[in-house]
Amino acid sequence: MRIRPANPNDVPAIAALISDYAQRAEVLPRSAEEIRETLPNWIVGEQAGQVLACGSLLHYTPRLAEVRSLVVRNGSKRQGRGSAIVTALIAEARRQEIPTLFALTRVVPFFQKHGFAVSEREAFPEKIWRDCQLCAIRDNCDETAVVLHLADINHSASSERSES
Ligand SMILES: CC(C)(COP(=O)(O)OP(=O)(O)OC[C@H]1O[C@@H](n2cnc3c(N)ncnc32)[C@H](O)[C@@H]1OP(=O)(O)O)[C@@H](O)C(=O)NCCC(=O)NCCS
């Protein structure tokens, strides 16, 4: 599977991929228009001309972004595709020098495998104000907040370099 930035031709495939999971309330719905407007933030995994996986970064502030709309096509899961997308999103966040990434998820072990730690939803008031306020199950949310502090990772990586 080839990981690459999304282009306008991918919008219908991304929308269909997300819609499949949004119908089962596994991710928030995203309209084709919304995807098109935020296209530079999207990454896709393509194989044999088909989009099998996607994910995006949603910027809240220059210091905080959410891993968003991370999905792998049904029938293609548990083959490292989600990992390839989240790894690319983390690399992109690093490139943009965003110090903190978070996600709200029901798949905590997946994110832990990529260095995220369980956090409190309340640590991300920006998310609560933007999305959770509108959610029908906000008082019974079964999603867990997970966070990855890239600034810490960058700092320890650079101190290791300067110590060696
Ligand atoms: C979550 C999702 C993106 C993971 O993608 P994937 O390609 O299936 O995952 P990977 O093969 O990269 O998994 C890597 C590791 O993460 C963990 N993992 C992945 N899916 C998991 C799950 N459902 N439950 C527990 N651990 C899981 C495992 O440790 C896995 O390694 P293993 O298969 O060797 O045990 C995918 O299952 C998906 O699209 N789910 C539906 C939408 C969704 O919930 N998206 C996340 C929104 S925050």
Strand content: 25-35%
Give the strand tally.
7
How confident is the prediction overall: mean pLDDT?
89
What is the succession of H and E elements?
EHHEEEHEHEHEH
Name the bound molecules. Answer: coenzyme A
Number of domains: 1
> What is the CATH architecture assignment?
3-Layer(aba) Sandwich
Quick one: overall form? globular
Structure annotation, total helices: 6
Structural class: alpha+beta
Helicity range: 25-40%
What does this 3D model show about the protein?
It is a single chain. With 164 residues, the protein is α+β, with helices and mostly antiparallel strands. It has a single domain, classed as Aminopeptidase (3-Layer(aba) Sandwich). It is 36% helix and 28% strand. The chain has 6 helices and 7 strands; from the N terminus they run βααβββαβαβαβα. The longest helix has 15 residues. It is globular and about 40 Å long. The C terminus is likely disordered. The site of coenzyme A (COA) has 20 residues, from strand 4, helix 3, strand 5 and helix 4.
